[in-house]
Amino acid sequence: MRYRELGSTGIKVSEVGFGGEWLTGTPGQAREMLERAHELGVNVVDCWMCDPHVRSNLGYGITPHKDDWVIQGQIGSVWQDGQYTRTRDVTLVRASFEDELERLGVDHFDLGIIHYVDDDEDFERCFGGPFLDYVTKLKDAGTIGHIGLSTHRPEIALRAVKTGIVETLLFSCNPAFDIMPASAQLEDLLAEPESYSVGGTGIDPVRERLYATCERRCVGITVMKPFAGGRLLDASLSPFGVALTPKQCIHYALTRPAVASVLAGYATVGQLEEAVSYEDATTDELDYASVLAGAPAHGYAGQCTYCGHCAPCTMGIEINMVNKLADLARMQDEVPDSVRGHYEALKVHADACVHCHACEPRCPFGVPIAERMDEAAELFA
Ligand code: SF4
Ligand code: SF4
What we know:
Layout: E1 3-5, E2 12-14, E3 16-19, H1 27-39, E4 44-46, H2 52-62, E5 70-75, E6 77-80, E7 83-86, H3 90-104, E8 109-114, H4 120-126, H5 130-140, E9 144-151, H6 154-163, E10 168-172, H7 175-178, H8 186-191, H9 205-217, E11 220-224, H10 246-254, E12 259-265, H11 269-276, H12 288-293, H13 319-330, H14 337-345, H15 369-379
Parallel strand pairs: 3-4, 3-12, 4-5, 5-8, 8-9, 9-10, 10-11, 11-12
Antiparallel strand pairs: 1-2, 6-7
Helix pairs in contact: 1-2, 2-3, 6-9, 13-14, 13-15
This protein binds iron/sulfur cluster (SF4) (2 copies).
One iron/sulfur cluster binds at residues 289, 304-310, 319-320, 323, 363, 365, 367, 369.
């Protein structure tokens, strides 16, 4: 298992993490799943589901290696009348949060995630008044190590990151969502797949700006919904008209800027093992790019997805990295020092391009690479 720094938190998380919402079976099944995950090197777990049974199962599952787990606790996910709900009522939030600590058998969470903020009105409720006071007190008391936020909406994520309060995001990231307009209601799209059509302009600019902003501000992202609710794994449901594999979806998410871990949910040990086998996958197995480029419908023409298929460059330029850094730099009025630092650390810079065009036929997305190298050279000059 490879591990990545989660932004500036100082916490290292496994590239493949554990979304605990499917732990609805017996405690023994949960223990088996989490023990296997631990054995495979998975070290980060999130459980937004506040169902007491699921929480207790998760607690039982992590017991043998409790101290090894990085736990994302959720603030605002509440079990009421036998159902999940979310609220900012601090009395209810506190009771639910304390219940989560107790059922998981811990006295603190490494990360305290402000649960599921998807609209501006709710954002205002969360980032002012008693709810934020409560979250801040949890952090001051060490009951949570760092404050995070979960959302499906890139504009909300950007607002949260810009407060300077939020140190990590739990964000829905996959190639289908990334090309949807930022304003799209993803839950509605998942519920009504027929309303989901692919645009033609590549990654939505607001989402792109979010990834760039997180990278620049050192806000680490853990990913939810890497398979778009399973739709990307089924050609008949995928907006691209072709199925991707779990490994390809995980690879897509892990190649976005600032992403540290992908938290898929697993119903079986087999699904968990398949996700973790990402770590040993061959380049061909990870190749989401060719699948998307050859799909009946895709919106990435001319856009670099940082897949790396164009390598090797005649002059030794890391083309995908140059493109990624150039895209990150373009999001700002001025090239951020951190991005410039990464660029300068590259062994060969974009201005070494001799326009041989040897790389271009290898790009599945028809990116005019030599032109992009010139643009990058100018940008970082
Ligand atoms: S066109 Fe430029 S980037 Fe592409 S292989 Fe030639 S030198 Fe490398
Ligand atoms: S230029 Fe094309 S092949 Fe190269 S990393 Fe970008 S999308 Fe992939």
